[in-house]
Amino acid sequence: MAPTSTPPPTSTAPAISVTNLTYTFPTTPPTPSLTNVTFHLPPSSRTLLIGANGAGKTTLLRLLSGKKLCPSGTILVGGVDPFATGLEGVSYLGLEWVLNPIVRHDIGVSELLDSVGGQAWRARRDELVRILDVDEGWRMNRVSDGERRRVQLCMGLVRPWAVLLLDEVTVDLDVLARSRFLGFLHGETLARQCTVVYATHIMDGLEGWPTHIVRMTLGRVRQFGTVEELSLQVRRAREMADRERWERGEVDIWGGWRNSALLDLVLGWLEEDFRERGPRGPRGGLRAKGEDGEGKEEGGRGG
Ligand SMILES: Nc1ncnc2c1ncn2[C@@H]1O[C@H](COP(=O)(O)OP(=O)(O)OP(=O)(O)O)[C@@H](O)[C@H]1O
């Protein structure tokens, strides 16, 4: 975790472009994880990656981060193939990052932050410590899971990134910490024109945060677009369904907004996916996460 002296490019916010991406895990039998995935996200966007368990979110984020080989020309981040170039300025915070054993050692917060560039980016470091309410006197073997996650997030974000890929790394945060963390990311996308893609199952407190949504179903991108476009589609479909029920004389015509609009949107999608897919049975070829090991690999195949 040596600090890097060269700052990543932050002047031009990178767009993310995925075209006809198919990815198959090299298992026996081969497990298709992504099929013909296509979507485009503009610079400075804040995107939620939404989908049921097993929809392919982690696989996609790892491919975007350059950790896995993908068919040439299918992924461009800022116009560059991430695997081929080992993208400077792309930060991927996912399960392997969360499980890094260093953050459980008897080590102090300042020492950890310095090891990832805390001195080089002093102002960012101090801002993150303040926003995530981190006590620099903590010893990492004597903190709670949520406190540990706050320190980890300071570590993961201290070095300025141009693209941030988050794979559900906020589960341990309390509501205030998560809210301040999301606020920080919101500010970053505006101030530094950088791009965030965030896979999460927790819709609480996200209202108004995302600019775009990518909806994944069973390894495919089913819809993508701005939050407004997608919300409008769902709202219209629900209103039409309510009207039909009302015309049929059904008393309970309130099928609609039970929670926040965002949660209802996602809940509606997952219910739709579930209805179409049916309950899970034994599915040949399924593998537990992590069987393919960690880090950069060349095992996957396209097509
Ligand atoms: N290591 C692996 N080896 C083989 N197949 C895998 C592996 N990891 C995932 N898969 C397959 O890819 C599919 C997508 O997995 P992925 O982890 O990308 O889903 P996800 O959307 O991130 O799910 P979750 O919300 O549960 O984290 C799985 O259903 C599984 O079939």
TrEMBL record:
A GO term for molecular function: ATP binding
InterPro entries: AAA+_ATPase, ABC_transporter-like_ATP-bd, P-loop_NTPase
Domain ABC transporter span(s) in chain numbering: 16-243
Keyword entries, A-Z: ATP-binding, Hydrolase, Nucleotide-binding
SMART domains: AAA (SM00382)
Compositional bias annotation for Basic and acidic residues: 288-303
Region listing for Disordered, in residue ranges: 275-303
PROSITE patterns: ABC_TRANSPORTER_2
PANTHER family, A to Z: SKFA PEPTIDE EXPORT ATP-BINDING PROTEIN SKFE
Name this protein carries in UniProt: P-loop containing nucleoside triphosphate hydrolase protein
Source organism per UniProt: Terfezia boudieri ATCC MYA-4762
Lineage: Eukaryota, Fungi, Dikarya, Ascomycota, Pezizomycotina
